[in-house]
Amino acid sequence: MKKRLLFLGPPGAGKGTQAELLAAAHNLLHLSTGDLLRAEVAAGTSLGMEAEAVMASGALVSDELVLAIVRSRLETQAASDGGGWLLDGFPRNLAQAEALGQLLEELHQPIELVVLLELDDAVLLQRLLGRGRADDNESVIRHRLEVYREQTAPLIRYYREAALLQSVEAHGTVDTIAARITDLLA
Ligand code: AMP
């Protein structure tokens, strides 16, 4: 079974929900840079204070900052038992993807599969508006979708060319989508 995975897709596609389910079912480390950043903000660390305003605007926090977080977690995981992981919300742009590739080469742990969750903008907007997170008001949501299209969507081509990408339709129930993803892991 594939156990080094990356989830790609627009905000609201259900990456977090699906990543959490899959990680629990297969004992993978679920690494969500959004969750980790929100935890830093909640704890009032200097990293959190640096990230807070940027997150509230829907823009991306600096590559250095997220890379430092991801690097330390992946190094720990590689050192512990070489167990699998699932990256959710990272990488968000080409520079992050390239830095990740380099890090994984150092760790001798290449990505085995990139899952692209696909969903219409209209449905995304509805889901995000219903979620009630601090950065989920309409103008911030529109900005996050724009940031996704401009900075993150180019990764689709990047991972497709690396022959790592598989698409999943992200409509239907949580269980239906989870089953579609599980089919790709065999
Ligand atoms: P998410 O929970 O993945 O939607 O992330 C929430 C917010 O955290 C984003 O809108 C960004 O401001 C920030 N963020 C999360 N992951 C990253 C990342 N890989 N690079 C830069 N900013 C990020």
Topology:
Layout: E1 4-8, H1 15-26, E2 29-32, H2 33-43, H3 46-57, H4 63-80, E3 85-88, H5 94-106, E4 113-118, H6 121-131, H7 138-152, H8 154-161, E5 165-169, H9 174-185
Parallel strand pairs: 1-3, 1-4, 2-3, 4-5
Helix pairs in contact: 1-9, 2-3, 6-7
Bound molecules: adenosine monophosphate (AMP).
The biggest sheet, with number of strands, parallel, antiparallel or mixed sense and barrel status, is: 5 strands, parallel
**Could you give the order of strands across the largest sheet?**
2-3-1-4-5
The Cα radius of gyration reads 16 Å
Q: How many domain units?
A: 1
Residue fraction in strands: 5-15%
Give the tally of β-strands: 5
Q: What's the CATH topology label? A: Rossmann fold
List the quaternary state of the chains.
single chain
CATH architecture title: 3-Layer(aba) Sandwich
Can you put this structure into words, describing what you see?
This protein has 186 residues and is an alpha/beta fold. The chain has one domain: 3-Layer(aba) Sandwich (Rossmann fold), CATH 3.40.50. The protein is built from 9 helices and 5 strands. The protein has helices spanning 15-26, 33-43, 46-57, 63-80, 94-106, 121-131, 138-152, 154-161, 174-185; strands at residues 4-8, 29-32, 85-88, 113-118, 165-169. Strands 2-3-1-4-5 form a 5-stranded parallel sheet, with helices on both faces. Helix 2 crosses helix 3 and helix 6 (121-131) crosses helix 7. The longest helix is centred in the middle third of the chain and has 18 residues, at 63-80. The chain is globular, with a radius of gyration of 16 Å. It starts with a strand and ends with a helix. The chain binds adenosine monophosphate. Adenosine monophosphate is lined by residues 11, 33-34, 37, 54-55, 58-61, 66, 89-90, 92, 96, 144.
